[in-house]
Amino acid sequence: MSVRHQDGSAGDANYGVIGKGYVSYRQPDPNIADFIARALGEARTVLNVGAGAGSYEPVDRQVTAVEPSASMRAQRPAHLPVAIDAVAEHLPFSDASFDASMTTFSVHQWSDLAAGLAEMRRVTRGPVLILSCDPKALDRSWLNDYAPEMIAVEARRYPTMGAIADALGQVDILPVPIPLECTDGFGEAYYGRPEKLLEPGARLANSAWSFVDPAIEQRFAETLSRDLTSGVWDARYSALRMQPFFEGSLRLIVSSGSEA
User: Fold this and answer.
1) Are 127 and 139 in contact (CB under 8 A)?
2) Of 13, 52, 184, 228, which has the maximum CB count within 10 A?
3) What is the tally of structural domains in the chain?
4) What's the CATH number where 228 sits?
5) pTM of the shown model
6) Cα within 13 Å of Cα(257), Cβ side
7) In a 3-state reduction of DSSP, which class is residue 85?
8) 102 near 121, Cβ under 8 Å?
9) What is the tens place of the pLDDT at every residue in 48-72?
10) 1 occurs within a structural domain
11) Closest CA to 132 of 245, 255, 250
């Protein structure tokens, strides 16, 4: 069964707590949005599952949004449709209702991955898109040197590419390069801007930090601050400050399906 927190959040993270101020740090990045738009193809009706505050929701198509967290639904901008309170594992739609469906940074929150993906496939005629992270590639980031406990948490939470493929059948797994000025503040988005992760709000907008001991987060902030001041971080990673893209763990998984 899905875990429902006080604000309705489903899954392991309580967005009634960590979702406050989320949109200040998690704005859709145009480069990543382009990947999604291309994969949606000619779809006119799109279901967005775990829609959150609406990141990557296309505005040039007819979108139906599903989001169980009241906190996240309340942060959706006025130009986006009001989200339906429902979870991925129980979508309140008929078979083949949508041309395409999508979910971004959400599958690791689901209590039953296979059931949620099966539901997305059931209600979708065409492509099913999943934007997620490959847990086997999370250690590519410098964050693994500073907060290995947090990276380990992420690696446990994110489903493997194999698990997603097993649930959806044949898929294309597309690496998504992360731009230097990425506006979507997941951890790797700051690969060349480490100072941003000294902001508590930036860490709060990444659910993994809510699963580690506060002492670990404090140690991370103190160590990173010290190494930035002393030049240790730049001695190791300064090239990242000028690297236009980072090939990290971000992946777009696409199940093409068959048009009705």
Assistant:
1) no
2) 52
3) 1
4) 3.40.50.150
5) 0.86
6) 27
7) coil
8) no
9) 999 998 989 999 999 999 999 998 8
10) no
11) 250
